[in-house]
Design goal:
Structural class: alpha+beta
Oligomer: single chain
Strand content: 15-25%
Largest sheet: 15 strands, antiparallel
Length: about 850
């Protein structure tokens, strides 16, 4: 039976520097994993190249760790409130408080990646004393270590990190990390496992006294009734006598063999990326590496080749299979040698991998061990749990542990470029580092919260705009309303265009304070661009709307005439302050003797719409002012062209007046939002459009989309669009400049292909994703073809860093907000009566 203090090598800690009893000094760092998930093969090869540079730069004895641990709920909430003044945003404060219980119930986990590298040795005096007292409670006084020595160790570490590069963004760990890591190992998978420190803290000092003692019972001998014959179960029972926690049962797995034909990259070599998603257990991994340069490898190969030649000469006259075996070995050695001759920058990596599985009972742990072995068989990787070396392999995951025989017994040797195909430091994380929690990650298996810092993105010079696609009923509108209410609760404002006949956005707005609902078919405000916008730009905005509406070319006679009237000089000369003034001016110019025919044509065209469009020509209506926290514009009464009519020239030229009018008003709402939100008013503004093709397929709408996508980050603004078919609706800026993309269920094969390609997935590399989107994303099941509550909101996501993954949208944690978003009015009369009381102009 081994004892914890015998296996804990630390004598003293100074910040991220660890001084061991054997005299070794190590430096340990948090490692930022690289995005992997569903990215394209070219991106994954870049990740492999980063790992190749990493392994070629590491000193012998370096330790790589991937530690699975629970996320601290308070850390999640802290990320939610970054950049938000809760004193000013009481609604969001209530959302954060309500999120506490939900996050705690989900029990999200994370994987912390660490790199421990040897950076030197203490002086002989300290090493000798520490070796004499190894296993006792004596420690090295960290405060007595000379500053010059510490600077030397730091300099050595920085030299190694410089060779590695900045791809992994190493951050020194605090001294508290070593204590947490030890306690995590003792409690792995059982009660009392401490919450992970997910962020680097203040660098401080610690001594060996902070490490708990424990008994490691290999084979759980204490539980066996057989006193003569020992137990040969490959499990370690870890007992901490000073604490009342239940024991932890742990098993150490290590690869026995890898596929003889090699492991294909990507897709077949990432054997450490399948350790998440096992219930009731905690799985950590560690890898100790040593590197030989190419010239030394070539010399060793020459020596081995001579030995093979001698053996072949000795067996030359022997009739057996040995001669064939030796010939095969010589051929393999020749290929191996050629690999290093061709690749001069290569090195040879000797690595020992340990996968540590911990659970609350022996049965739970062994079930996970067997499940993991079966999973690895699909990769043709044979995993074993060697009996008699479990404690030695357990100790390999402890930074600073001295070499043990088991480390060499289970080592494997491959070239560094092949080792890089393991890509151990990768993540399936999606979303932002902070912001509201919009869902959980389904791809990593750890259910990490997905943060979407829509307002923080603009402050950090990123685009916060997003686009959503999916079939009817898949959750697009729900997600748009979720983002809108979060923006409102965090102190921003939004404008949403509601195309639904039942007025679902208007119904949703009734739950929000300071909300304005506008019905364009029964207007209470004016969208007259000459009254709506600043005189400096009002003429141009009016011209953009009136020319398509009247089916005029800017170079035609009537088009040139109205262009001159709406120029600053024409507006000032004729005193035009509204579109009604424009109509009266055209009539007056038509009636003047000797007037050109273009004014008669222009007057006739304007005369067809003056009485039909009070929202543009009624002087009694007050202009729209987007100062309310929430504005919903109902456009259900407008006739709007289809996407095909907008993109097909001959169909667009034959559009009836009603559809031209609907398009003009739709665009004016977007232009008004652009002028209001893309201004430095200190308030975040979100424009929401559920019919994306009306923003992306017309000239004015495309300009609005482009401006929000390009300049929203400068003015605290974003646009959120939704569509059924991104191939036709998300063109131009909507395709190239909107970084955050979401795909909900899409059962139609063509639309599903278009959606995944828009997301950035290469279906030739990952054709299985098409089936997952069509059949396994919020699937309707049962006789009523309903989506179970636990499967609602499943989606694919691409974040601002181009990472692609799968997640599940949770919705608001506040019950009242969730009810407002989920519910849809069923009685039009009741909804209209309620909304009529809220139709006021701010």
């Amino acid at each position: 039976m081994a004892f914890g203090r015998d296996l804990q090598p630390t004598a003293a800690i100074r910040g991220n520097l660890q001084f061991t009893n054997s005299g070794l000094v190590t430096a340990t760092y948090f490692i930022s994993p690289l995005g992997y998930g569903l990215r394209k093969a070219a991106d994954k090869h870049d990740v492999r190249s980063s790992h190749h540079a990493l392994i070629n730069s590491l000193p012998n004895g370096s330790l790589l760790l991937g530690i699975q641990a629970g996320l601290n709920t308070l850390d999640v909430l802290t990320k939610m409130v970054e950049g938000v003044d809760l004193d000013e945003c009481e609604d969001y404060a209530d959302e954060v408080v309500a999120s506490f219980e939900r996050v705690r119930a989900i029990e999200p986990q994370t994987r912390i990646f660490l790199l421990s590298i040897p950076v030197g040795a203490t002086n002989p005096g300290i090493s000798a004393i520490s070796r004499v007292w190894r296993g006792s409670t004596s420690t090295i006084d960290a405060t007595a270590i000379a500053r010059a020595d510490l600077d030397g160790y730091d300099e050595k570490a920085n030299e190694i990190l410089s060779r590695i590069g900045s791809d992994f963004d190493p951050v020194p760990v605090p001294a508290a990390l070593f204590q947490w890591l030890w306690e995590h190992y003792l409690s792995r998978g059982a009660a009392g496992d401490p919450v992970a420190p997910t962020r680097a803290g203040v660098l401080d000092d610690a001594t060996a006294a902070v490490f708990r003692s424990a008994a490691l019972d290999e084979g759980a001998q204490a539980e066996s009734n057989r006193r003569i014959r020992p137990s040969f179960i490959p499990v370690i029972k870890v007992v901490q006598p000073d604490f009342e926690y239940r024991p932890s049962y742990q098993a150490m797995l290590t690869p026995h063999s890898f596929p003889y034909g090699g492991m294909m990259f990507p897709g077949g070599s990432e054997f450490l990326n399948i350790l998440d998603g096992f219930p009731d257990v905690t799985i950590d991994w560690g890898m100790r590496v040593s590197i030989k340069p190419a010239d030394q490898v070539l010399k060793n190969n020459e020596l081995n080749l001579r030995r093979l030649g001698e053996q072949m000469d000795q067996r030359d006259q022997e009739i057996s299979f040995a001669q064939n075996t030796l010939t095969s070995k010589a051929q393999m050695l020749g290929e191996y040698n050629q690999h290093f001759e061709v690749n001069s920058g290569e090195s040879e990596v000797s690595f020992t991998t340990v996968i540590a599985i911990g659970g609350a009972t022996r049965e739970i742990t062994m079930d996970a061990v067997n499940s993991l072995k079966r999973r690895y068989k699909r990769f043709q990787v044979e995993m074993i749990a060697p009996v008699g070396t479990q404690v030695d392999l357990w100790s390999m995951l402890v930074p600073g542990s001295p070499p043990r025989r088991a480390f060499d017994d289970f080592a494997h040797i491959i070239p560094s470029d092949m080792w890089a195909g393991f890509v151990p430091f990768t993540t399936s994380q999606i979303g932002d580092d902070s912001g509201p929690v919009i869902g959980v990650n389904l791809m990593s298996g750890n259910f990490e919260p997905i943060h979407f810092g829509i307002m923080e993105a603009a402050l950090h010079d990123f685009s916060a705009s997003f686009a959503v696609t999916g079939e009817l009923g898949s959750g697009k509108s729900y997600f748009l309303k979720l983002m809108a209410v979060l923006v409102h609760d965090m102190g921003g404002q939004f404008l949403a265009i509601d195309r639904s006949q039942v007025g679902e956005w208007a119904h949703f707005a009734s739950a929000i304070d300071d909300a304005v609902v506008i019905d364009l078919s029964n207007p209470t405000v004016s969208l007259d661009p000459l009254r709506l916008f600043h005189p400096r730009i009002a003429g141009e905005r009016a011209l953009d709307s009136i020319l398509p509406l009247l089916d005029l070319s800017p170079t035609s006679g009537a088009g040139a005439a109205i262009s001159n009237l709406l120029a600053p000089k024409g507006i000032a000369e004729h005193g035009i302050r509204s579109l009604l003034d424009l109509f009266h001016t055209v009539q007056r110019l038509r009636d003047q003797s000797g007037s050109a025919e273009e004014y008669a044509d222009l007057a006739a065209r304007l005369g067809t719409i003056v009485e039909r469009v009070p929202v543009l020509f009624d002087p009694k209506l007050q202009p729209l002012r987007l100062s309310a926290a929430a504005t919903v514009v109902r456009s259900h009464g407008l006739a709007l062209p289809t996407a095909e009519e907008l993109i097909t020239p001959h169909l667009y030229n034959r559009l009836p007046l009603t559809k031209r009018l609907g398009t003009a008003l739709y665009e004016l709402v977007g232009v008004a939002a652009r002028e209001a939100f893309l201004s430095d008013n200190g308030r975040f503004g979100l424009l929401v459009g559920d019919e994306a093709h009306h923003f992306t397929q017309t000239q004015v709408g495309s300009a609005v989309t482009s401006d929000f996508s390009r300049d929203g980050r400068k003015h605290l603004a974003a646009i959120g669009l939704a569509s059924h078919d991104p191939a036709t609706d998300f063109q131009g800026a909507a395709h190239n400049l909107i970084p955050n993309r979401f795909i909900f269920r899409q059962r139609d094969e063509t639309l599903a292909r278009n959606s995944l390609e828009w997301l950035g997935v290469d279906l030739e590399e990952a054709p299985f994703l098409l089936q997952i989107l069509r059949e396994e994303t919020s699937p309707p099941v049962g006789a009523g073809r309903q989506v179970p509550d636990e499967r609602r909101g499943e989606m694919f996501m691409r974040d601002a860093l181009n990472r692609i993954g799968r997640g599940k949208v949770l919705g608001p944690a506040r019950l009242d907000r969730a009810a407002a978003i989920t519910s849809t009015p069923t009685s039009g009369s009741d909804g209209r009566n309620e909304l009529s009381r809220r139709q006021t102009v701010s």
